[in-house]
């Protein structure tokens, strides 16, 4: 902002020149006028809402691994040799049933890893882990 140095009669003029201030204010006003509608511009659309299709009921099998390493297939005790037959039967099913794995918290990791490797080798496509909610904590 500038101030005039000389007045009409030679005395100094102490009025502030507000022209640059008004120019800056006009530029800011024009920028706000241009940018605000673009930021708040919405086009209301009434899109049709599809009715949720009912999911087909899928069959599933549950494999439990106990703390001592024992296996159970849908609640029935199972040996390691029987596991391979059940996994191959599951993989060959055209309905793509899901295998749900329930592992005891005290089970050894190497045993779980071995079972997971056998599930993968049997080409089981759908695998889910159940019972994990008991390990979660609210922080």
Describe the structure.
The chain is α/β, with parallel strands linked by helices and 139 residues long. It has 2 domains: 1-40; 60-131, Nucleotidyltransferase, domain 5. 35% of the residues lie in helices and 16% in strands. It is built from 3 helices and 5 strands; from the N terminus they run αβββαβαβ. It has helices spanning 19-40, 80-92, 109-121; strands spanning 60-65, 71-73, 76-78, 98-103, 127-130. It has a 5-stranded mixed beta sheet with strand order 3-2-1-4-5, with helices on one face. β2 (71-73) and β3 (76-78) form a beta hairpin. The chain is elongated, with a radius of gyration of 37 Å. 6% of the residues are buried. The model has no long low-confidence stretch (mean pLDDT 83).
Described by strand count, sense and barrel closure, the largest sheet is: 5 strands, mixed
> What gross morphology would you assign?
elongated
Strand order of the largest sheet: 3-2-1-4-5
CATH topology of the largest domain: Nucleotidyltransferase, domain 5
Fraction of residues in β-strands: 15-25%
Which stretches of 5+ consecutive residues score pLDDT under 50? none
Strand-pairing-aware structural class: alpha/beta
Layout of SSEs?
Elements (H helix, E strand, L loop, with lengths): L18 H22 L19 E6 L5 E3 L2 E3 L1 H13 L5 E6 L5 H13 L5 E4 L9
Parallel strand pairs: 1-4, 4-5
Antiparallel strand pairs: 1-2, 2-3
Give the structure's gist in a few sentences.
The chain is 35% helix and 16% strand.
